[in-house]
Design a protein that fits this description.
221 residues; alpha/beta; TIM Barrel; 5-stranded parallel beta sheet
Length: 221
């Protein structure tokens, strides 16, 4: 997203003319050169988010690997990159930046989607808020991360087919904020479906997570 104004115009065209029901943003943008990283809480994206919120469509925060030059901790450990671990770390930090930057204070109706049962945030949100209450260190947002998580974020089951983990997420954010997803080509549709069809949740929650929540969020008939 090198040109936020152009991105806003294209988003408006995609929704109003082409009938899109949401949009995806990459984990970060490289602007100017390959080593210059920009995250979407930066001031130049303020107007873009206002335009996005006005359309009433959610955005999906898509993971990507950090640049090797910025994250040497992965050097020599390629098995910890990508979907194993680095995707979740990079995406969760970016999502926390957006939540704590005040983005959802300025755009309270804006909705963010995180895959993989929230990239670990639901399991750590109490500690994040607990520490920030004791030492806010100039925190600009007006509410707790937990409040944004439960009011401005949806999570999907993509690539995380573990019933215990799903139940923990349901306890933290509620079944109304979870949507079924697979994470193809990293995962197989049949494995995801077999797990979801038999996991130990109520049929009411299964229908909501499997269908109804997405229909409501995306405005589908």
């Amino acid at each position: 997203m090198q040109d936020p104004d152009a991105a806003a115009r294209e988003l408006e065209r995609s929704v109003k003319e082409l009938g899109f029901h949401g949009f995806m943003v990459n984990g970060f943008s490289q602007v100017g050169d390959a080593e210059t990283v920009v995250y979407y809480d930066a001031p130049q994206y303020t107007d873009f988010w206002v335009s996005a919120a006005a359309l009433g469509k959610p955005f999906y925060m898509h993971p990507r690997d950090p640049l090797p030059s910025r994250e040497p901790i992965y050097d020599g450990f390629p098995w910890l990159t990508a979907a194993t671990w680095a995707f979740a770390v990079e995406t969760s930090i970016h999502a926390l930046r957006l939540m704590t930057s005040g983005l959802f204070d300025r755009n309270p109706g804006l909705q963010m989607i995180l895959g993989h049962l929230g990239e670990g945030i639901p399991f750590n949100v109490w500690r994040v808020d607990h520490i920030l209450r004791k030492a806010p260190r100039g925190l600009p947002c007006k509410r707790t991360v937990g409040e944004y998580l439960r009011e401005n974020v949806y999570v999907t089951t993509s690539g995380n087919f573990r019933t215990q983990t799903l139940l923990s997420t349901m306890l933290e954010v509620g079944s109304d904020r979870i949507m079924y997803s697979v994470d193809y080509p990293f995962e197989a549709h049949d494995e995801a479906a077999q797990w979801f069809d038999s996991c130990s949740i109520s049929e009411t929650d299964r229908v909501k997570i499997g269908r109804d929540n997405a229909r409501q969020l995306f405005g589908l008939a």
